[in-house]
TrEMBL record:
Function per UniProt: Exerts an anti-apoptotic effect in the immune system and is involved in responses to infections.
Record-given protein name: GTPase IMAP family member 8
Highest classification ranks of the organism: Eukaryota, Metazoa, Chordata, Craniata, Vertebrata
GO molecular function annotation: GTP binding
Record-stated family: Belongs to the TRAFAC class TrmE-Era-EngA-EngB-Septin-like GTPase superfamily. AIG1/Toc34/Toc159-like paraseptin GTPase family. IAN subfamily.
Biological source species: Astyanax mexicanus
Length: 269
């Protein structure tokens, strides 16, 4: 328990293809409309976006991410947004929810976890589960197991996630399904060791290390006749900044872009 008897906070990152209902599901979990949802380009999530609300006696952070296809982002930008999603919920997410709309059968469901693993440079499957939307489309007598067996890609995804899944109906505003989801996540977390409650990725460790220990943005005067914005992990540059009496500002950004400027300066490395 955390302060004032509340349960420990929970960090959730939602992943999925376009029009699976990620943003609507994010709103359902939080119990309020914090994320823009709907079908169409104007409602397409292009950045990792997080919101936190008190849900069932605990703080729950939900991070919505760009669609893994048809979002207008290439793999490099998608990877950057996944990094940002992880940093949003430092020290890391407790669970990745792969959102799949029932009735949307596709072989590509089997590829999404592989793509995420590749971008994260590690396996997220033990921290993952599948969250089905469009639960209201299930008819009396429909068996979800049979639907899963008919979709080989979906079957592979669920098996990779250890058989963990939950069905959601975003039209249902009752809190019961959200409580059941959180209880299911809590049950899974009880199986983990205390030091393994959150997922941590090599890409976030790398980025946070750069930001907190090495990545300092400096303004150097009189370089090529104008001020130049510089980033470096070099102690030599830090010494120059100290001699010039310039302050340090730590921030995160696209390192590849800034390093193009670094390479133009001679004698600092």
């Amino acid at each position: 328990m955390s302060k004032e008897g509340m349960k420990e906070p929970l960090n959730l990152v939602l992943l999925g293809y376009k029009n699976m209902g990620k943003s609507a599901t994010s709103n359902t979990i939080l119990g309020c409309d914090k994320f823009i949802s709907g079908i169409g380009k104007s409602n397409t999530t292009r950045n990792a976006v997080d919101h936190t609300e008190e849900v069932d006696g605990r703080e729950v952070m939900v991070v919505d991410t760009p669609a893994m296809s048809d979002s207008g982002l290439n793999d490099h930008l998608l990877k950057e947004e996944l990094k940002n999603a992880l940093i949003c919920c430092d020290p890391g997410p407790h669970v990745f929810l792969f959102v799949v709309a029932l009735g949307n059968m596709s072989e590509k469901h089997g590829e999404i976890l592989k793509r995420v693993n590749k971008m994260m440079r590690s396996d997220v499957s033990s921290f993952s589960m599948v969250l089905f939307t469009n639960g209201d489309s299930l008819k009396p007598g429909d068996k979800l197991d049979n639907i899963i067996k008919m979709d080989q890609g979906l079957k592979e995804l669920i098996e990779s996630c250890g058989g963990r899944y939950k069905v959601f109906n975003n039209k249902d505003k009752e809190k019961k399904q959200v409580k059941e989801l959180l209880a299911q996540i809590d049950d899974e977390m009880k199986k983990r060791s205390p030091e393994n409650l959150h997922y941590t990725s090599p890409i976030t460790k790398e980025k946070i290390t750069w930001v907190t220990k090495y990545c300092t943005l400096h303004t150097l005067a009189l370089v090529g006749g104008s001020a130049v914005m510089m980033l470096s992990k070099s102690s030599a540059l830090a010494n120059v900044v100290e001699q010039l009496g310039l302050g340090d500002t730590v921030m995160a950004f696209d390192f590849d872009y800034v390093m193009q400027t670094v390479e133009s300066v001679v004698g600092l490395f």
